[in-house]
């Protein structure tokens, strides 16, 4: 029981102190789980992180679930996941409760506008990073352009585009493999 | 009660199909904003700004915030729990039964395809948000907020500089808020 709570506490600390989630959480995970508590080694952390990235959902939460499961089974996964989302639930609920009143103050509105401009810059940075990581050749460039066109010019839902791109990825990879086997 | 069940269903779907982390939930949230009357896209830009500038995974912050808008405190909690349930089950399954999941050739192939497509959709969603933040639609046409655009571009340029690259991410939001207040953006 004690270890379950320490899992909850460790991930609560990580969730409550890192901004941005995903990639920006890796140094904090490394510090808390590998160096300070020695629960896992850094290779296992990278494996967990890789699994967290190639499963649906929020990467930081997925990583917490996976590490919690490795430590203490299903209960460990539950405690870690809850720890990771707990600070968000509290902080965002509090903000949401008073947000409309805050917005009435002119100073808050100006501050929010400044923050929004920073968020625009940050997101542009993120898109460039994602493009660099995901578009790695002609095939992936075509998928990216086709995805853009389909999303803009048709009414297909995001869900259908995600599934379609997964199938085309599998198709492309298996064709590539066959061509390699022939030559 | 009806709206809570609808929320659970909507966020379970997002949790299952938003592949690529928190930002990948944005296209789905925009879809929700257009389909349901839970929140507007303009409110969504506020939520995203708050979610990015407060601690915690962005995806969870946005689920809590948008769920709150739809159905109060319970809505926020329910949305956040619903969004993590699908990946929770999938990860337990993988950890239990699939030894080398991320090395599997079908998994690799699927993600080879999903990554660029999801990037495209995130980019489209983000440009839609840019449009909402940086220009206002008036009867006379589009009205750009030049000082906001200038500040966003300057921030982006600064982010590329070596000596500020190591800044704590929260610093950017502090600077942003300060600039917003001083220049009355």
Write the SSE topology.
The complex is a heterodimer of chains A (183) and B (185).
Chain A: H1 2-17, H2 26-36, H3 42-53, H4 59-103, H5 106-134, H6 138-153, H7 158-182
Chain B: H1 2-17, H2 25-35, H3 41-53, H4 58-97, H5 105-134, E1 135-138, E2 141-144, H6 146-159, H7 162-165, H8 169-182
Helix pairs in contact in B: 1-4, 2-5, 3-4
Give a written overview of the molecule.
The complex is a heterodimer of chains A (183) and B (185). Chain A has helices at residues 2-17, 26-36, 42-53, 59-103, 106-134, 138-153, 158-182. Chain A is mainly α and 183 residues long. Chain A has 2 domains: 2-134, no CATH class; 135-183, no CATH class. The model of chain A has no long low-confidence stretch (mean pLDDT 88). Chain B has 185 residues and is mainly alpha-helical. Helix content of chain B is 77%, strand content 4%. The longest helix of chain B has 40 residues, at 58-97. The chains are: A mainly alpha (183), B mainly alpha (185). At the A-B interface, helix 1, helix 3, helix 4, helix 5 and helix 6 of A face helix 1, helix 2, helix 3, helix 4 and helix 5 of B.
The level of helicity of chain B is: over 70%
Rg of chain A is 21 Å
Annotation field: number of helices of chain A: 7
Q: Which pair has the most extensive contact?
A: A-B, 95 and 98 residues
What is the gist of this entry?
The complex is a heterodimer of chains A (183) and B (185). By secondary structure, chain A is mainly alpha-helical.
Identify the notable features of this structure and list them briefly.
heterodimer; A: 183 residues; mainly alpha; 2 domains; B: 185 residues; 77% helix; 4% strand
């Amino acid at each position: 029981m004690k270890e379950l709570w320490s899992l909850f506490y460790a991930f609560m600390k990580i969730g409550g102190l890192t901004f941005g989630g995903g990639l920006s959480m890796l140094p904090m995970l490394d510090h808390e789980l590998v160096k300070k508590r020695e629960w896992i080694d850094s290779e296992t952390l990278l494996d967990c992180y890789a699994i967290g990235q190639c499963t649906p959902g929020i990467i930081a939460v997925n990583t917490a679930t996976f590490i919690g499961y490795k430590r203490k089974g299903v209960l460990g996964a539950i405690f870690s996941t809850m720890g990771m989302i707990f600070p968000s639930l509290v902080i965002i609920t509090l903000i949401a409760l008073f947000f409309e009143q805050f917005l009435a103050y002119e100073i808050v509105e100006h501050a929010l506008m400044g923050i929004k401009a920073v968020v625009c810059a940050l997101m542009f940075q993120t898109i460039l990073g994602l493009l660099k990581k995901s578009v790695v050749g002609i095939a992936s460039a075509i998928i990216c352009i086709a995805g853009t066109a389909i999303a803009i010019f048709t009414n297909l839902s995001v869900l259908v585009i995600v599934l379609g791109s997964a199938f085309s990825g599998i198709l492309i990879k298996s064709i590539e493999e066959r061509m390699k086997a022939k030559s | 009660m009806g709206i809570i069940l609808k929320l659970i269903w909507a966020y379970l779907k997002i949790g299952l199909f938003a592949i690529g982390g928190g930002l990948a939930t944005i296209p789905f949230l925009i879809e929700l904003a257009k389909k349901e009357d839970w929140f507007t896209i303009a409110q969504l830009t506020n939520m995203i700004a708050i979610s990015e500038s407060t601690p915690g995974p962005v995806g969870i912050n946005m689920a809590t915030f948008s769920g709150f808008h739809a159905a109060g405190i319970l809505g926020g909690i329910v949305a956040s729990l619903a969004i993590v349930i699908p990946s929770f089950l999938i990860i337990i399954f993988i950890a239990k039964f699939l030894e080398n999941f991320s090395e599997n050739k079908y998994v690799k192939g699927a993600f080879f395809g999903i990554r660029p497509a999801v990037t495209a959709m995130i980019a489209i969603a983000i440009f839609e948000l840019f449009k909402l933040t940086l220009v206002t639609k008036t009867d006379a046409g589009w009205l750009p907020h030049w000082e906001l655009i200038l500040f966003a571009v300057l921030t982006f340029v600064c982010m590329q500089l070596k000596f500020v690259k190591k800044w704590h991410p929260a610093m950017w939001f502090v600077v942003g808020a300060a600039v917003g207040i001083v220049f009355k953006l």
